[in-house]
Amino acid sequence: MPEVFVEIDWVRAHANDPALRIVDARSRPHGAPDLVAPTGAEQYAAGHLPGAIHLDYAHELADPATPYATRVAPAELFARALGERGIGDAHTIVAYDDGDVPYAARFVWMCRFYGHDDVHVMAGGFKEWRAAGMPVTTDVPVFPPAIFTPRKRPGLRATREEVLAAAEGRNDVQLLETQRDKTYAQRDRDIASAKRLSANQLLEDERGGRVAAKAKLDALVEGLGLDRSKRTIVSCGSGVSASGSYLALLEAGFTDVAVYDGSWLEWNHDGLPTVPKS
Fold first, then answer.
1. 247: part of which helix (H) or strand (E)?
2. Quick one: 169 and 271 in the same domain?
3. Averaged pLDDT for residues 184-203
4. SS3 content of the chain, % helix, strand, coil (to 5)
5. Tens of pLDDT along 31-40?
6. Percent of the chain with pLDDT over 70
7. Among residues 136, 152, 168, which one ends one of the domains?
8. Measured between alpha carbons, how far is 192 from 105 in angstroms, rounded to an integer?
9. Are residues 200 and 216 located together in one domain of the fold?
10. Which residues are paired to 48 by β-bridges?
11. Edge-to-edge strand order for the sheet containing 257-259?
């Protein structure tokens, strides 16, 4: 089984493996209706990796019960979305984005939450793939339906109630706000008790969204006085940056990391405790 992050050469070498499924996870920020940017589906239609299917975290894989926040879809819906596109229990999955906003990491976290560990991020994303002169297509592959069996791991997902307990100091949890700098700058409040640790520091755009070097991770962790053995909840705007931070913190040696996928969109919508940004 390859590492969580795989390089372009690995994907190219295994592209014809019938046990591999490639997922184009590109999207656009949820909760920004005035944003003028192509949707993930439009990006995919303009060109993608050969053999890649498209799945958008905010559409096919989101919970319709919370349209104001892109919480992961219920098990049955998630399994159906993957199975209908030919992704099943026996497949190795590689997801990619553009190498900056970690939509692929969001997909990896969702698959892990539902018990599928053989899922990976293509480091560098679509931009690096194209820059390397790799093939791009507009053809849409069709795979036979498969069975994806969801095996939920509740510990990987922080509930609203657990985050509220952390905000009110009723549990011994490290709560981290990891929204990317550009979108974080657009708000003036934080979830109470959250420490700020930017996903831009944990995952580096200039290196195609790869996790920062160990020395940098160690400095960030030590600078905030974090305990790698303590349960740690990561939050952001809509659960995307938090998912990238989840992967980075695991590489940094944390042993119990959960994503609050409701994140700021749910927290702010529900009027839960906030404090001014420091």
1. helix 240-251
2. yes
3. 96
4. 35, 15, 50
5. 665 667 899 9
6. 98
7. 152
8. 26
9. yes
10. 137
11. 195-196, 174-177, 232-235, 257-259
The model carries a pTM of: 0.96
pLDDT for the residue 36: 73
**DSSP three-state, residue 48:** strand
pLDDT reported for residue 216 = 97
* Residue 116 near residue 93, CB atoms below 8 Å: yes
The region, left, alpha or beta by phi > 0 then psi within -120 to 50, assigned to residue 104 is alpha
Q: Give pLDDT, residue 12.
A: 96
Tokens of 71: 């919480």
pLDDT per position as a tens digit, 148-168:
999 999 999 999 999 999 999
Domain that holds residue 190: 155-276
What pLDDT does 92 receive?
A: 98
Phi-psi region of 204 (alpha: psi -120 to 50; beta: other; left: phi over 0): beta
Residue type, 186: Q
How far from 21 is each of 50, 82, 125, 253, CA to CA, in Å? 11, 10, 16, 29
pLDDT tens, position by position, 223-248? 999 999 999 999 999 999 999 999 99
Q: Taking the mean position of all CA atoms in its chain, how far away is CA 158?
A: 14
Reduced to 3 states (helix: H, G, I; strand: E, B; else coil), residue 16 is: coil
Q: Which of 209, 167, 225 is nearest to 191 (CA)?
A: 167
d(CA 23, CA 116): 14
Residue 60 belongs to a domain with what CATH number?
3.40.250.10
Tokens linked to 224: 């905030």
* Residues 50 and 90 grouped into a single domain: yes
> Rounded CA gap, 134 and 128, in Å?
9
Strand partners of residue 98: none
